[in-house]
Amino acid sequence: MAKLAKLDDIVSLCKRRGFIFQSSEIYGGLASCYDYGPLGVELKRNVREAWWKDVVRMRDDVVGLDCSILMHPLVWKSSGHADKFADLVTVCKKCNTRTRVDHLEDHADEHTEHVPVETALVDAADLDKKVCPNCKTVGKFSEPMAFKLMFETQMGANADDTMTLFLRPETAQGIFANFRNVMDSTRVKIPFGIAQIGKSFRNEVTTKAFIFRTREFEQAELEFFCKPGTDEEWYEHWKQRRFQWYIDHGIKAENLRFRDHDPDELAHYAKACVDVEYKFPFGSGDWQELEGIANRTDFDLRQHQRGMRTINDWHEAGGDLQKITLKDEDPEYFKGPLSYFDEQAKERYIPYVIEPSAGIDRSTLAFLVDAYDEEEVDGKTRNVLRFHPTIAPVKAAVFPLVKKHGMPEFATKIANDLKSSFSCFYDQKGAIGRRYRRQDEAGTPYCITVDGDSMEDNTVTLRERDSMEQTRVSADQLKSLLIEKLGL
RNA sequence: GCGGGUGUAGCUCAGCGGUAGAGCGUCACGUUGCCAACGUGAAUGUCGUGAGUUCGAAUCUCAUCACCCGCUCCA
């Protein structure tokens, strides 16, 4: 049982079988962007739907949402992204190590917090006194470089009259911005959650490792609103729930773990945060984050209440985010527009939020890597993707043993019948063994073969991907049998 | 952004100044009839891109793009 050792092998497999291609490849590629091919799009769609089923559809306390990617600029002022998501970075000329200006020694206390640009600029003015954390050299720094972590775009066709907008760096803020809409329209009662899957964009300083860290990526996020005081138990609930989801969909337990954030690593608003990590075969075989589960407290909703109070200032400043500061909170903020009235306790409060935030692309890669296997069969290597049936891009393939004697017609009929229930592939070309192996490499759990006897007794051969075992089953019972075996 | 490495057929790679190759895969026909079968035949290359050196560049030089590894960075 060999396992993929190098990322190159994964990239190669993905391209060869049509899972993932580099974006714009015919033009030499575009950094950090990837496309999902015919098998990849099915796989990714299944991952997405498995998440949605578990987090939304099977629960009574979570509803879905699909926000626009472009949102009002004040959303990002309130969330903190607009002025805190820009870091100044400098390079030590002595050892060539790059460090964030606010990470330089003497200022290392709050090293997970992004500092407003203005503050960073002031700090940057006297880099002469700073010490390189790597080589301890003093004051040999390059001119600080600013990184804009949000993508900008222009809204408005008239070039003279456009508004600068940001592509969202996370889907979560769209949920907070719709908190009241959802409450007003769905009769949900706390505790409840709002879930969303969608694209986000971040100008990461460096991208990494195939589709693991890309600048355009897809997130599956849940904001689960609960009463302050119950937040810790809900945090624990989602922590366990989300970990189990990966196991239930085929990830081997030994490749999965939790990593709690240290208190000094936490964002200033987070009370607790844990990562679900997968042992990817790249880097130095390192554990890498698939999902973060955070207790965000009441920070976000309170921030947006401040943002709502700032809207007039924004208009007066001509829409320039740099010229405005968020208004202070009302002393009675807990009675504000984004508060919740608890009918039973007869009290009003800003709910706490537990946020499981998963990377769809990352999980898709993890499912792909984890499913990959090679085994020796009669001295030859069999490549097989042992996908859990739920996420397998194709559930079943139907073959006529040979393409004559009415077998293709019989097999086509079966395939068409199965297609109405799940993804099914028909293939009549080439040797039967080759067709089996091709499906193994695509991760198809079952193959059905029609032979000479099928027309006589209405039975077909059902072949299992993992064991390669074959059983004879009645064509009439095939569909219900497969639905049962696939767990659909 | 720094350092190292790599870009040649769909994939893996050879070729390293003188006509662009192999294996696998793909396709067609025939045969076969349950695990990458056999035979015959076929298609497929801006040698990442652009300049330069040269009589001549996949090969040498420079630039550039992309990917990988390591720093760095990373709600």
Question: Would you write up a description of this structure?
Answer:
The protein is α+β, with helices and mostly antiparallel strands and 488 residues long. The chain folds into three domains: 7-16 and 34-80 and 152-366, BirA Bifunctional Protein, domain 2; 86-148, no CATH class; 394-486, Rossmann fold (3-Layer(aba) Sandwich), CATH 3.40.50.800. The chain contains 15 helices and 23 strands. Strand 17 (372-377) and strand 18 (380-385) form a beta hairpin. Helix 2 packs across helix 11 (360-371). Mean pLDDT is 86; it is low at 107-115. The protein binds one RNA strand of 75 nucleotides through helix 1, strand 4, strand 5, strand 13 and strand 18.
Compact description:
The protein has helices at 7-17, 38-57, 73-79, 81-84, 117-125, 172-177, 179-186, 231-248, 299-309, 311-316, 360-371, 407-419, 432-442, 452-457, 478-486; strands at 20-22, 34-36, 62-64, 86-91, 98-100, 145-148, 152-155, 163-166, 192-201, 216-226, 256-260, 272-279, 287-297, 340-342, 347-349, 352-359, 372-377, 380-385, 396-400, 424-426, 446-450, 459-464, 470-474. With 488 residues, the protein is of the alpha+beta class.
